[in-house]
Amino acid sequence: MIHNIAHGVQAFTSNAFLVDGDRTVLVDAGSNFDAVAHLREETDHLDAVVLTHTHPDHIGNLDAVCEAFDVEVWGYDSAHPVVDHAIADEENVTMGDRTFRALHTPGHKNDHLCFLSTDGEILFAGDLVFQNGGFGRTDLEEGDRDLLVQSIERLLAEADERLEALHVGHGPSVVDDPYRDIELAGQAARLY
């Protein structure tokens, strides 16, 4: 089961996905809302927090979540003060009842990761791509449009039409032909 605990929150935040199962994981912690209370409505146990990247809107609730659930944080850059354990490019990560392959996808931020399930059905895309061909900002520190385009192209090469669910950092998840939304994002990022 995958549940966005930030759904309906009116504050500026990223999505924060609770992935329940054998290894219960929170993908990104969001910010500016009581993530602990939202998590407690769904679970009394959390095994880890896994980060797509370390922009403030994705990690603002991290301290409260880690303290409440006594969990550690996994992300790409273990030199970042909030990351306890590094996830290498192409490393397998168990979330819920599935195995996901981490894909280092810079362009929006240098430490950005996407997570594609090994069966190809589920993708956590962070702020790389969004619904309807949206793509991550590159005007922030560490943003790089050429790198972003390369990262989207990598995602297109790794995923395929088996993809059933695209869980993004902002906005709704895509469950209707999500691979097409990645293709549109690649086209838009090259044009604009």
Automatic annotation (TrEMBL):
Its cofactor is Zn(2+). InterPro entries: MBL_Glyoxalase_II (IPR051453), Metallo-B-lactamas (IPR001279), RibonucZ/Hydroxyglut_hydro (IPR036866). It comes from the Archaea. Residues 13-170 form the Metallo-beta-lactamase domain. One of its GO terms (molecular function) is metal ion binding. SUPFAM superfamilies: Metallo-hydrolase/oxidoreductase (SSF56281). The keyword Hydrolase applies. Keywords: Hydrolase, Metal-binding, Zinc. This is Glyoxylase, beta-lactamase superfamily II. The lineage of its organism: Archaea, Methanobacteriati, Methanobacteriota, Stenosarchaea group, Halobacteria.
